[in-house]
Amino acid sequence: MAMRPVLAASALAVALSLGACQDAGFSAAGSARAREPIPPKTVALMATKSMSPRDPILIRAFKKESEMEVWKRGADGRYALLKTFPICRWSGQLGPKIREGDRQAPEGFYPIAMGQMNPNSSYYLSFDTGYPNAFDRANGRTGSYLMVHGTCSSAGCFAMTDEAISEIYAIAREAFAGGQRAFQFQSYPFRMTPQNLAKFRNDPNIGFWRNLKEGSDYFEALNEEPRVGVCGTRYVFGGADAAAGACNPKVDPLVAVKREKDEVEVAELIAKGAPATRLVYQDGGQHPFFRESSPSTQLFAEQAQPRPNMGIISRPEALAAAPEEITIEPKVKPVLLAKADAKHEKGKHGAVKPTALAFAAPAANPAPIPTREAAAASAAPAAPITVASADGDPAAYRKLLGNLFGGAPAAAPAAPAALPAADTAPVAAISPAAPLPKKVTARLHPAPSAHAAAAPKVDGLNPGASKKAEAKPAEVKPAAKAGEAKPAEKAPETGKRTEAPNRNRVAASQPAN
User: Fold this and answer.
1) Is 344 one of the catalytic residues?
2) Are 61 and 185 in contact (CB under 8 A)?
3) Percentage, residues of the chain above pLDDT 90
4) Where are the domains of the chain?
5) Given 88, 149, 287, 445, which residue is catalytic?
6) How confident is the model at residue 94 (pLDDT cuts 50, 70, 90)?
7) Among 319, 5, 286, 10, which Cα is nearest to 160's?
8) In angstroms, rounded to a whole number, what is the distance separating the alpha carbons of residues 161 and 158?
9) Are strands 234-238 and 227-231 parallel, antiparallel or unpaired?
10) Where are the alpha helices (DSSP H) in 343-393?
11) Where is the active site (predicted)?
12) Confidence (pTM)
């Protein structure tokens, strides 16, 4: 029986320690802070935007810009920006929180209910983001008690200063009083602009960030709170169908237009040479408002002057160093980016639409294989065209296989020993490692007695061109005519098979961009 008081005391100590982990302090002062009214200037700002203190809210946070936005829903059901607050401190790097202790602030979509608001916070006031949510758990991520709170110290949280969290807390409290059951907290690595997407396109987190952009696009295109679901290890966004668990919810036309517009702009930026980079922080960041003698813009001009009391700043030495920008090269370099065709790719308003991140397509009008008549027009016999000769001459390879995709006949060569001018565009449809068809190989080389007078004939690739060439007899000089023989239906059994391995050398001469 004597053990019972000891066990009870131990249980109380454990409960208090867990309460401290949950940022709880049980002071009368904390309750008084939580009852502070919304500042009169903010109430007046609401009136100018046809908002009321008890209208629903939505909050968005952006790490790279170190800003937090508070939006309010108007009478028309659409959200409008009320106010933007500078973030005093966030820790870690751009990217999601993965595991307990990594100092990462979370990224994603989190519902904040009244029970997550903490009026007794050790950091003035706070609310819990709710990490990990269903998406985080599906991806095996761990961590807990990640807050938006006061002071300027962060170990995975968003620190807002006491003054800022007091105002945000009061705005949220009034929204709950007006009947809102939970508000949505959207956390992003940066603003989801085409410029940022082009800049961070090779970052290891780009797939996750593009998934977040789907929710951002929905909100920015419609000014409505997106319904959020989780399908497998991905977020899904939409209306009622997404809330009902649909893995492929309907995409609103306005959202689709915004996404397409952004993708085109990203492609244009990449085509203009926008570098792919990654930002590496010593340990998170802070808005310039707290580091400069005056606000960088008029956005925070209404904030207290001098700067508000920031309390204890976590790792100030890390804030002294600016983030390092590192260029990231793609793991696999494309041959080249497809260019827009001004004649065929014009949109409704005449704007050229570039092809986004596409590999080069075959040329629209590749140089065809010359006919016997064109070859016979040469003034003097040329050196034999062999497979090996294309090893260091991409134009020769194009001459041999250019007619694979059809097109207008090529101009006659200017010099007897020179091959016809060839389109320098690579033949993307043929892989360098793939062997050529047997029938094509058989015709890559002319008969031993005819190679000096005519270019080889490739059967099966362009039947129309071949029949036309056979219908007209070739005009050749008597010296060459004496040894001329008709092309055989099959390749010679001897004298040519020893050169077969060089077929791959032709494909390897494809120029890379």
Assistant:
1) no
2) yes
3) 48
4) 23-327, 362-466+500-513
5) 149
6) very high
7) 286
8) 10
9) antiparallel
10) 372-376
11) 149, 157
12) 0.61
